[in-house]
Design brief:
nine-stranded mixed sheet
Length: 513
């Protein structure tokens, strides 16, 4: 039964009648120097020249023997530790038998009944009803295998095989069916990639095929057995947006089938991103279809407790730990911490700026109360996440290529916090800093941007504007509130944008009362 037969239901309407049951399967290419079972360079499938990094082992030549990559095994164990998994004391590799043109041996070296990691969980925050809600997805297992080759289809109708990717270390993570919506599926994948990047096991770039997500989806009517639905595996989800759109579509498709009284077929479906539809690929295989048996050329291996404990101790600060620390140490708003932590390099830049601000706030003779300190850190976060990030995006500049040092950015925030320049002047200063890396104090001095906060000087400017705009004064006194904004603008024009806006407003209201 194809999706085209049905007029799909609205996603929100579906969730009022049916509950989804979803688990994820995620494949991640590991960033090692060599491939999983041979000494060929691991280019993670990004080589421009086909079949460049290949040898008898990764192309499945008769008599070639595999030798496991220790770093790949350790990488999977580190992921398991980061995701609260139990690490197996003894594990082994198995042969997963199936035929496909990009699988040269006719089987894939994988793991079946003794994976490296089992029974963990991943927690993340999801925006629901205008607030962040904590979610938890249990991890069933994480195991290690080798990637397949890559089929290339020519305009002439030929199909060629590139074995550069064949044998690249591939981690597979399988979750329990704990995911309840398309938004949760997307956020789970985003948070998982963040963990992988923080611990440095993979760039996990979905556009490059380094992270590939699949969803197992079924529906059941509310009040019925959650396991009564028929599971459909959804593949070809090569972006976070595709994960969300694909899951939404499949939920709507299954709901419409159930509403007609028909049964959902157990099958594997692909996602066509251009058409925004899923499509049938094949009937779903079972484990016994693969005829798993222990890999005879590789002995079982042990992960000693001492080695595992050492790996645990060496784990870097993880995303959720950084979020909590940003709240405790800097008092950042939850949404600010959430966005900062999403980009590890940007989060590190903020910390460098915060460290410079801390040095300033702790200097002898300069004391701030706790509330003012938090406001200063939040001000820095706001400028980084809005103005600085916008400029970086517009001009395609990475954090590592920023000309603004953390010390200069901290000085910039200090100047704003102390009221030396207004917001308009701050834009000018930041633009110059971004382009040249200049010291903010130097820019302010050269461009004469120091804010006017002298009350008598401002009163003179305000009075001049009032005298020249009698109609606006009359309008304000007759109840037209916008008139005072016009007068405010005229004062800023009179002072070349250097007037302290808060003081100008106070003086205007006083004189117009």
């Amino acid at each position: 039964m194809t999706a085209a037969v049905y007029d799909l239901m609205d996603y929100d309407d579906v969730l009022e009648k049916y509950d989804p049951v979803m688990g994820m399967e995620v494949h991640v290419e590991l960033d090692t120097q060599s491939k999983m079972f041979c000494g060929c360079r691991n280019g993670m499938g990004q080589e421009k020249e086909p079949n460049k990094n290949i040898c008898p082992v990764c192309t499945g030549q008769p008599g070639a023997l595999p030798v496991p990559n220790i770093k790949a095994i350790e990488s999977v164990a580190r992921v398991g530790l980061a995701l609260n998994c139990q690490i197996a004391e003894e594990s082994k590799f198995d042969r997963k038998n199936y035929f496909y043109p990009d699988l040269p041996k006719g089987y894939q070296i994988s793991q079946f009944d003794q994976p490296i990691c089992e029974r963990g969980w991943l927690e993340f925050n999801l925006m629901e009803g205008g607030k962040l809600v904590k979610k938890q997805v249990r991890i069933t297992r994480i195991h290690l295998e080798e990637d397949t080759g890559k089929l290339m289809h020519s305009s002439k109708g030929e199909t060629l095989v590139d074995f550069n990717r064949s044998g690249v270390p591939l981690m597979e993570l399988v979750t329990e069916p704990d995911i309840k919506s398309a938004a949760e599926a997307k956020k789970f994948c985003e948070e998982l990639r963040l963990v992988l990047r923080y611990i440095g096991v993979s760039p996990a770039d979905m556009e490059k095929g380094q992270m590939r997500c699949e969803a197992n989806i079924s529906l059941y009517k509310q009040g019925e057995d959650p396991l009564s639905g028929t599971k459909v595996e959804l593949k070809n989800l090569n972006s976070f947006r595709a994960v969300e759109r694909g899951v939404e579509y499949e939920i709507e498709r299954q709901a419409k089938i159930l509403d007609t009284g028909e049964k959902v077929l157990q099958e594997t479906r692909g996602w066509n991103d251009a058409e925004g539809k899923t499509f049938a690929q094949r009937s779903k295989e079972n484990a016994n279809d693969y005829r798993y048996f222990p890999e005879p050329d590789i002995l079982p291996f042990q992960l000693k407790k001492e080695e595992v404990n050492l790996m645990r101790e060496r784990l870097p600060e993880l995303p959720w730990e950084k979020r909590l620390r940003f709240d405790k140490q800097f008092g950042l708003k939850q949404d600010s911490a959430e966005i900062l932590v999403t980009d590890k390099k940007l989060a590190n830049y903020f910390e460098d700026v915060a460290s410079e601000l801390e040095a300033w706030m702790s200097a002898e003779g300069y004391k701030l109360d706790e509330e003012s300190r938090k406001k200063t850190y939040q001000l820095a976060a706001n400028y980084i996440l809005t103005e600085l990030t916008r400029k970086m995006t517009e001009k395609n500049v990475a954090v590592s290529d920023l000309k603004i040092t953390a010390e200069n950015f901290a000085e910039f925030i200090k100047i704003i916090f102390e009221g030396e320049i207004n917001s308009s002047a701050a834009q000018t200063v930041l633009e110059e800093m971004f382009n040249s890396g200049a010291d903010p104090s130097q820019v302010i001095e050269e461009k004469n941007l120091t804010q006017i906060s002298d009350e008598s000087a401002l009163e003179t400017s305000v009075q001049k504007v009032i005298d020249a705009n009698t109609q606006s004064v009359t309008d304000y006194k007759s109840g037209k509130e916008n008139a005072i904004k016009f007068l405010m603008g005229q004062v800023m024009k009179e002072t070349q944008g250097k007037a302290n806006p808060q003081m100008v407003m106070e003086i205007l209201k006083k004189k117009l009362a």
